[in-house]
Amino acid sequence: MEPCKDHPFDSTVFIPSFLKTFDRIAGKASFHGLKPLPRMEIIGRLCDELLELFFPGRCGREQARMNLEEYLAYRMSVVTSHLKSQLYLAFRYDDESLGSEAAEEKSDRAVRSVASHFPAIRLNLKADAQAAYEGDPAARNIREVILSYPCMKSLTVHRVAHELYRLNVPIIPRMMGEYAHAQTGIDIHPGAKIGSSFFIDHGTGTVIGETAVIGSNVKIYQGVTLGALSFPRDACGALIKGAKRHPTIEDDVTIYANATILGDITIGRGTTIGSNVWIKESVAPNTLVTIGEPEIRKREIRNSH
Prior knowledge:
By secondary structure, the chain is of the alpha/beta class. It has helices spanning 15-19, 40-54, 68-94, 100-116, 118-135, 142-148, 150-166, 172-184; strands at residues 187-188, 193-194, 199-200, 207-208, 213-214, 219-220, 225-227, 248-249, 254-255, 260-262, 266-267, 272-273, 278-279, 288-289.
């Protein structure tokens, strides 16, 4: 719709009052909005490139005449370039006193450290894909799982973001997690520790909190929440950051749709948690947890006419 030419809108009238809402004008800025910041657009590209690096061909990239070693070297250079540029901005945002050279060095060290974990991450992702294939009767082959299952995208991003989180990298791990969340509907905090052969079936609405610990051979369905029951505070009432407040899920556990498991509790090995349950206390190993069968009532619908 064209602005009205007879009565043009003068935005400058509103600028003085709007400007007062910015703390940086008062010399107490908490956000560097006028400095270069990590960009979600590039983080998204990084996440997609990670998928292509771990599973060549998944994103439809042209492999041309390169052999596998050449192609992996090329993709690795793309991933590390994107990652390093965003880490540099994140480190400088997080520490205003950090000079350009120091930020460059920190970024380079972080990239090298994360890249050293790529072989182990790929092995874990292969185990995740195998678990999805074996755990879903609708999966025809592992290629279908890798190409189309949202859990594979989510876990690829998470397993790399988790390594960055462990290095205390600011901002970037959370941005990666939120990109995957937007793409898949699966919300995994980068701090969550996840073992091998993990399968999230369907996935939409799944939430896994920062201090959650998940063992090996665990399967969960859509809508499952591994959340916090309460948030510990210090003597001044401020939230205590980093305290263990999410569940530990031991090996070989299955959690069905829309189950809610809250607090620093343990779900024992080999346990099955039924749909729609609400759990606030630890569960012993090899236990079946369900809610009672709901009462179903039926009646005839009579047409008043």
